[in-house]
Structures are given as C-alpha cells and as structure tokens.
Amino acid sequence: MGLVREQHVSAVMIASFALGALLLAAMGLFGVISGSVTRRAHEFAVRLALGADHGRVLRMVLGDGARLVAIGLLLGAPGSYFAGRIIRGVLVGVSPLDPLTLGVVAAGLALVALVACYLPARRVLALEPARSLRQ
C-alpha cells in the first residue's frame, strides 16, 4: 500500500508542477504578445487614418498572432518529442506523447495567444486615430 501511495503523491506533484508550468507559459505568452500589440498602437493609428477599417486591422493583428502560434508549434513539436523521450522512465502508465494531451495543450496556448492579440488590439482600435498619433 505504501508504494502505491508514494506513486500517487508523485503523480499529483508532477501534475501540479506541469499545470504550474503551463500556467506560467500562458501568462508569459499573453504578456509578450499583448506588449507587442500595444507597442504597435501608432502603426494601427496610421493605418486607420489612411483609411483601413477596424475589421481589417483586427484581422491583420490576429493573422500575425496566428503566424506566431504556427511557428511556435512547429518549433515546439520536436522539442516536446525529445523531452518526452527523456522523461519516459519517470512516467508510469502514461505516454509522454499522448496526442490528445499534446493537442489540448497546443490548442490552449493557441487560444491564449489569439486572445492576447485580440484584447489589446480592441483596446487600441477603440481610440481615435488622431488621438493615438498625438501621444
């Protein structure tokens, strides 16, 4: 009974650390992308002043964010494969390359990235272009 309890405690700790790491990654991703979009406020103001509509600028920002997510997924997939091979011995009864888990995590981080693009872009686009250019 003691061995099963130790494995359970270890599994709970590893899951907690993994969830914490995922949360930190999501917060860092949100901060970096949100800051990047906010720094481009003057560019958006110029685009709006020259006649672009809000929808087009918003689609451009979300497209840039989606491109970054795709690059991140392409670079992260081999990394997760190699990391999974390294920690395979620590995991009991769980595959480190479970497609469902990897897909859910990738989709979750992609959603965080797109929300991180959308929220600041909406905030910046709500301002008047002339006022944004004066700042």
> Could you give the count of β-strands?
0
Average per-residue pLDDT, rounded, comes to 83
**First and last CA, distance:** 67 Å
The number of distinct structural domains comes to 1
Taking pLDDT < 50 over at least 5 consecutive residues as the criterion, the unreliable ranges are: none
Number of helices: 5
Helical amount: over 70%
- Structural category is mainly alpha
Overall shape: elongated
Largest sheet: none
Strand portion, in percent? under 5%
H/E element order: HHHHH
Radius of gyration: 20 Å
Oligomer state equals: single chain
What would your notes on this structure say?
With 135 residues, the chain is an all-alpha fold. It has one domain (2-134). The chain is 84% helix and 0% strand. The chain contains five helices and no strands. It has helices spanning 2-39, 41-49, 54-87, 99-125, 129-134. Helix 1 (2-39) runs parallel beside helix 4 (99-125). The longest helix is centred in the N-terminal third of the chain and has 38 residues, at 2-39. The N and C termini lie far apart (67 Å). The mean pLDDT is 83.
Can you summarize this structure?
The protein has 135 residues and is mostly helical. The chain contains five helices and no strands.
